[in-house]
Every structure is written in C-alpha cells, then in structure tokens.
Amino acid sequence: MNLKSKGIICGAILFALFYAANSSTAASKKANTTADRIVVANVGFKTPESIEYYPAEDVYLVSNINGDALTADGNGFISKIKPDGSVVELKWLNGKKQNVLLNAPKGLAIQGNILYVADIDQVHIFELPSGKQRKSVTIKNSTFLNGITPGIGDVVYVTDSGLKAGNNAYAYSGTDAIYKVSANGKYKLIVKDKNMGHPNGIIADGKELTVVTFVSGELFRIDAQGKRHGLPKPPKGGLDGLLKLDDSRLIMSSWAGSALYVLNKDNTYSILADSLDAPADLGFDPKRQRILIPLFKKNQLIFLPL
Prior knowledge:
Radius of gyration: 18 Å
Mean pLDDT: 89
Low-confidence stretches: 1-30
CATH architecture: 6 Propeller
Strand content: 35-45%
CATH topology: Neuraminidase
Number of helices: 2
Shape: globular
Number of domains: 1
Order of helices and strands: HHEEEEEEEEEEEEEEEEEEEEEEEEEE
Number of strands: 26
CATH superfamily: TolB, C-terminal domain
Distance between the termini: 26 Å
C-alpha cells in the first residue's frame, strides 16, 4: 500500500485500546531486543510491500511499488534476494521492460510453478523459474487489490482494500471484497461488503479464509458459505500482513502498533517484535524458521528468527 495512503489512514484509525500481553512467552521476550534481527537496507528497494520465499531457488521475492499505489505507471518491480540479505537481482521482474506489466505490485503468492502478483485492479501471473509473464487478470469493479494467498489447487485469494484516488489523499471506494483467481485467468467474487473494514492480509485454510483489516483493525474468519466470524481484536490496528504457524498461532503486522502481534491458542495476544516502522505484508521462510518483514516507509527488510 502507498506510503501516503497508509500514513493518512493510520492517523485516522489510531485508538487507545491495548490488550494485556503475556510477557512470559518467548514471543513477548523477543519484542524487547533487536539484536537477533537481520536488516537489509540501502540496496535500492522502492516501497517494498510484500516478500515471499521461493524454495526452489532458496531466495526471497520482494514486490516494490516504486511510486503511487494507485498509478498505472509501469515502473513497479520485483527483487530477488538471498537469505543472507545480498541482492541476486534488484529488478528481476521490471515493469519498464518489454513484455512485463507491473505498475504498483503489492501482495505476492507462489502456487506450484506460478507467481501471482496483486496490482491495483489486476492479478499478474508469472511462470517460475523463468519469470515469463503468462497473463494479467483484470478484476472488474476492483480498486485496490492488496493481500494474496494460495488456495487449494491452482487458485489464489486476493483482497480488495477498497481505496481510490481522492483530493490530495486517498478515499474509500466501497469496493472492499475478496476474490478467487485461477491460473487460467478466471476469477470469482467470494464476498463483497463496503463495511468489511478494508481487508488486507489473508490466509486460506481449506475453504475457510482468515483476514485482517487495515482501517477497522479487525481479525475475522470467513467460512465456506461466506459468513464472517469475528476473532479476538488485536491490540492496535493498521493491520497488514498475516501468517499462520504450524501450531495454528496467527501472526499479524500492525502499522499503528509498529509491531508483530501473535494470537495465541488461548485467544490472548503477545508481541513478537516491536519498533517496526510500517511493517507490511509478511513472508515466512520454513527452512530457517524466520519471519520476513518489509518495512514500507524505510525501504528495508527485516528477517526475524522465531
């Protein structure tokens, strides 16, 4: 999401509610130190929004908006980074190159040998490992495609955060929704509700979806029938990335809290990491058991061991 839009919205949604965290857990202890973090900085990132682990090459793919999040300027790019933080290729996929369409790329998802990229009102489909662009799927009546996650088979689910260009800022478009997109280019509306709270991060578990919202700061589950079920509300809002660990705990990034929150099995929250400036869409490296965090405002990445 664009720096200007997220900064304005974050200012509007800050609130004083704070949940008590269980400071005895290992997760909360990690919030008090930055010594174990790997920081990747000053390598040329331009508003990094999402990061995804690509196990076939043991590298990380990073989407870079490079400009305004709603402008089809053709200058977005995707970087390829080694786990030690060194750059394999800064503009591995470059919107300025012929036969590559990338405007303001946000969420990334890998499903088999395909990379899906959420970009304004399109989902781009690239082949792996070649990076050849197979097609771009335009989702009608969408305005701000953002979070994306693999589903079962050759499909992904993508959120529309419901934003549009406004006067000197960004306005609410009322298009808040979730879509299912197939590798063949077909898509289906799963749920649409202007009162959804501006959905962002999303994960799929079978036919159920779990979603965090950026403006309302909510966490909820959507069942196979499209019905919404509320989950415990995180301490602060501006929620962006969402992960599910093997032990079923949920991890989410919060702009308002400058933190990663963990929803524990007993429905309490703890802080996994703090002092994070605008943590965006999260990735996970299962080989090294580390969380991958783009810092939207600082043009940096943080690698955080669990």
